[in-house]
Amino acid sequence: MYKEIATQYPSITLLLSVQEAISSVFQIAEDGLHIPGPSTAVPQLLPGESLLFLSRFYLVKKGLFWPILPIFVRKWVATDMKNPILYLIPVTLGDTPVERVLPSFNTTVISGLKYFIVENIRSARRFLKKCNPEIEIDAIIFYELNQHTDTKEIASYLTPMKTGESMGVISEAGCPAVADPGADVVALAQQEGYKVVPLVGPSSILMAVMASGFNGQSFAFQGYLPIEANERAKKLKQLESRAYNEDQTQLFIETPYRNQKMAEEILLHCKPQTRLCIAMNISCDDEYIVTRSVKAWKGKLPDMHKKPTVFLIYKGS
User: Which residues, given as ranges, of the chain have pLDDT below 50?
Assistant: First the structure.
């Protein structure tokens, strides 16, 4: 039996494939769609929010849970003319199963978008297919944003939003716009007054802080340190000084093939009691996150060659 419900929200159509005849009350109110009962798996549909579907939910009848199979909410993410959204979509940090680090809602959003701003088109296509193997990848329009992009072109990337189309921003790994060129397009979206929605996903920076045992109340991400040896040594000493004087955790990264050299220079220039956390391949099967004093690390550095790594330093006792 199929029932079509369209009420105060003309852009929402619920198609219900009912396994059993279930007596239930659906209330679409001004503040959203509420489904009575203990079904915690069903999110509320708030005005202006855009969802493609809810894969499943359960209602109670006579003390039993009865499945209502698939419920498609066709309020297309891409066609809310009044409130187009720029979604910031996190990417897995390595060859990690999507379901291990990304909520299903992210796939819901991805499946309803036609326009993506990405750091690399090839890897973005792979990621989208990984999230939803059924996605029509050839129907998607990509805008590439990286260090080679002409800054004068970035504003034009948001053109679909002017016609009411929502868009997604995808980084190479982790959260877009954090140590990532996506920050430029987010700044433009904010300037134009568009709604920007960051989705939940892995952040190597936050996860490294979480697992380091260092100060999580005050920390600073420094990005890449200078390449020139003397300048790098000077910067390391500056960061170490801040760790002690400001009680602040200092984080930085390096190009993966230079990780080993970076670690060796930290051991060379920092105090023996200063603590160093090496957070490598975060969220992957071979994840390695270990904190030791600089003195304790000497002669015991792991192999970090070509492995994404976050370095953290903090004051020692």
Answer: 1-81
pTM of the prediction? 0.72
Residues 6+ apart with CB under 8 A from 131: 98, 102, 106, 107, 110, 111
68 contacts 2 by C-beta, under 8 angstroms = no
- Do 106 and 193 have their domain in common? yes
Distance between CA 81 and CA 62 in Å, rounded?
A: 42
Helices (H) and strands (E) in the chain, counts: 9, 17
Other residues' Cβ atoms within 10 Å of the Cβ of residue 181: 21
- Quick one: 278 and 260 in the same domain? yes
* Dist. CA 195–CA 178, nearest whole Å: 18
Helix axes 259-269, 229-245, angle to 10 degrees: 60
Identify whether residues 92 and 155 lie together within a single domain. yes
Say how many domains are in the chain.
3
Q: Which domain holds residue 189?
A: 78-198
Same domain as 217, residue 188: no
Residue 106 shares a structural domain with residue 187: yes
Chain centroid to Cα 32, Å, comes to 26
